[in-house]
Amino acid sequence: MASPVATGPAGPSPTQAPAPRRRRGGENDAAWHLSDRIGLAVCWALGLIFCAIAVAIVVYLLVQGIKFLKPSMLTTPASAGFSESETGGFSDALIGTLIVAVMGIAIALPVGVGIAVWLVEYGRPAALARIAESTIEAIAGIPSIVLALFGTVIFSSTALGFLSRSSEGVVFGRSFFAAATMLSLVALPLVAASTREGLNSIPRHVREASYAVGKTKIATTRRILLPTARPQVATGAMLGLGRIIGDTAIIVVLLGATQNFAPVEGAPFPLNYLRGAGTTLTNFVYEASPTGNLNQPQKAYAAAFVLLLMVLALNAAVDVVHRRAGKAGSWSS
Amino acid sequence: MEGGGLPEEYGPRWSDQRAERLLGALVCTVVALLLALIATVFVRAWPSFAHNGLAWFGGGGNVDDQLNQIYLSGLGAGHYVYTFHAWQLIWSTILIVGGAVLLALFCSLFVAVFLVEFAPRWMSNVLQPVVRFLASVPSVIYGLLGVLVVVPFIGNHLVTEPQKASVAGVISLSGYSLLAAVLILTVMIAPLMVSIFSDGLRAVRPGWLEGSLGLGVNRWRTMWKIGVRTARPTLVAGTVLAVARGIGEAVMLAMVSGSVAFAPNPADGLIFFYEPSRPLAPTIVKNIDSLGSKPANATLFAIAAVLLFSAAMFSLAGWVARRAMRKYGATA
């Protein structure tokens, strides 16, 4: 996993030390003290526990998901009712997750790539570059609940009233626009860090070759550098998508406490939904868990299963991109 | 990125200066947004801090009752109430995040060493995706599993009837507990630490390790005395990041911690681990409906300000620690 913040400015290159990993030859087993052996056993145990936890999560949710997930849940919206059989499904939540994911990444991707390009290719004045770098790190460190609270302030302002429902001058401030904008800040650092890593890994002579044939800096970036760094950009985007899909705090606060779409009347088609409140799978799971307002554990399991499938699919996609990028061969410097 | 076939990069639309200025403006916007966020949070929080002073961080009274009073006072036209003593929430945050980070630090260090040096190829091929997967599971799923699996297990099998009876008048030990919160938070933050630690361990210069091996030190000792020691700055960085993540975790802890304003007391012995509480971040989620009341709004923003400030302080401390260690030749 590409951790955006921790790799830091120095960026420990993973290519440095793959060769001398196995140092079996000539080692004397007697040199291993009892404490060393116990330590190694602890290593194995903890490694196996990690695997066991992951397998347990997947298998348990798989079993519960198959038991409780009915295809009709994916197509019917939630409704009020007394028992779990009367309350419909979570189609609105599913669509809401997709909307939020698309909108969030649609903001985070261009902004993140733009910042990364500026940092790597331009970065003047140097002071601003340093500030921008720390800003990205700081945004990565802001708890999402704080972002959510900040969102309530900006989107309740009358200037941004057109992005959500408003009545008699009071702006509700909760809408897909509001939630997606704040969620894009969650994805932004991942996209920026990953793109930056990609751009930094392109050796200098590639740029020089492009400048030498008369291309400008921005043309080089658009035609050569960004296409080359595409795997890293894609990785960042998918990691960001995973964060957006999995975030709950911002959704709970900024998408309105509802389980259905609440379109705004009197607005043209896509806008009326985007300006209205809604729900996502994470919000549905949160509310349907025993501690939430709905308390329908079976449906919570079903929705959590669907959510987990999405996350697994994203993980697999990251793997595929990595493998392809590895196969295509990188610039040998 | 494949635009039209025309070489539009020569046109005025994408001239270099313009692109630079545009991207620069974008960067400035994001920086300004962050500054606006910080300013907004602290300005909104000010009334709560101003009314309480340092007592804000102190104890006294039940936080939930205070929050309720604050909320109600905002509905009427009368005098706003701001009295708020957050110690119960702060103490709960310290216990849960501290416990989880200590546990995760121990586990992830061993797992990272294992992953980098000792695991056979097949094992590291399994373990790496596992770590990545655990890091990407949404927190609400951890919360759900906690509520439906871990909490009932603790409530039904670990807590005994006499224990429940002994505190029956004060709190109910139903399984929503410190223990559940710490365990699940550990699982959430450990993968993050493992991936950062193993990056750091891989970046240790092979020559240093080989030098140690060449002196006849076995691989285990070499890894701990040279590898882990050299990678200390990354250990600090990973731990700091994990602390920040734990402090900001709202939803999972709101589900598992019990959501009761109560300060678990270590003097209670074993029951201490079964006592419910509620950290700072989940308090915001739980009281989000009272944002409309002005004093409640200020109080919630004050909690957010504390979260923001402590996350920033941890990052700063981590940065200072890493700088200090770098002096001794430690890289990464």
Description:
- The complex is a heterodimer of chains A (333) and B (332).
- With 333 residues, chain A is an all-alpha fold.
- Chain A has a single domain, classed as MetI-like fold.
- Helices cover 65% and strands 1% of the residues of chain A.
- In chain A, a hairpin with a 2-residue loop joins strand 1 and strand 2.
- Mean pLDDT of chain A is 85; it is low at 1-21.
- Chain B has 332 residues and is an all-alpha fold.
- Chain B has a domain at 89-258 and 315-326: MetI-like fold.
- Helix content of chain B is 70%, strand content 0%.
- Chain B is built from 13 helices and no strands.
- Chain B has helices spanning 16-52, 63-75, 87-118, 121-136, 139-158, 161-166, 178-202, 206-214, 219-230, 232-248, 251-256, 280-286, 294-326.
- In chain B, helix 2 crosses helix 13, helix 5 crosses helix 7 (178-202) and helix 8 (206-214) packs antiparallel against helix 9.
- Chain B is globular.
- Mean pLDDT of chain B is 88; it is low at 1-9.
- The chains are: A mainly alpha (333), B mainly alpha (332).
- Chains A and B meet through helix 1, helix 3, helix 4, helix 5 and helix 8 of A and helix 1, helix 3, helix 4, helix 5 and helix 7 of B.
